[in-house]
Amino acid sequence: MIRIIFGLLILVTGYSATAQQIQPKGHFLQDSMAIGQPVQFTLSVSYPSDKLIIFPDSTYDFSPFEFIRKDYFSTKSDSTISFDSAVYTLDSYEIESIQTLRLPVFEILESDSVSSFTKRDTIFLQEMIPVVTDSLSLKTNTSFVATEKEFNYPLLIAILVVLLILIILTLVLFGKKIRLRWKIWKLKRKHEKFLEVFKPQASQPRADEVEKLLFLWKKHLETISLKPYAKLTSKEIHALHQNDELYKNLQQMDRSIYSSAKNDNLSGAFVFLIDYADLIFNERIKELESHAK
């Protein structure tokens, strides 16, 4: 036990003697700084040439400063003494008026290292905005001066003129196509609306509704084709289209309307009329689209 304590005393004494032999020096190269302004701290040390000494690098905690870079100078040695030095460029964003720093050098031993620190050096933070004392008196001005905002009429007029020119050019160059596209869109909307109203009523038509539904179909064909279907008889419509199937279904409806024997089974005939209305509509759309190209 006594040997262990004696060994520890020798080890501590050896470390202490080593630390006393190495006394690094360090100080700031300026007296004051501003927040975020780079400052320089110089570090130097003389030590026996047989020892291995290293300086802190970017991994070291330089608080309250932040590391920017390190400029290291070549070692100067004679037969017994070596001299190393470096300049650290740092900055700080702390707001304390007085900031201090000390840096170590590390002596590398076989299985450990010993740190030797410089004395702590101080740098002062410059006040960029002076503190306003309570002794200053403020002058109050309560008068209010209203200022009118000037509207940029020339700019407004220029914008309106440009817009007007663009509209005129668009109408001149694309006016016909725009009108045809608008017409196609309106016809599609009318045909969709017709099918929404006509299909539910024509699915199971009552005998007393046949004449009204047939007239509604003729009026729609007149709208999409610009031909007077509402004034044409079934025979005249047949002469116009030369479609025997269409004529047969129209005759079936005529017999239900004008004869004493009412026919309630006309759903098939109305399905054909709906399909024929789709045919007329699609032909009209193709015709308009060919003119719009």
TrEMBL record:
The lineage's top-level taxon is: Bacteria
The upper taxonomy is: Bacteria, Pseudomonadati, Bacteroidota, Cytophagia, Cytophagales
**Transmembrane portions of the chain:** 153-174
Query: Would I find Transmembrane helix among this entry's keywords?
Result: yes
* Signal peptide interval: 1-19
What is the originating organism of this protein? Marivirga lumbricoides
Keyword annotations for this protein?
Answer: Membrane, Signal, Transmembrane, Transmembrane helix
- Protein name in UniProt: DUF4381 domain-containing protein
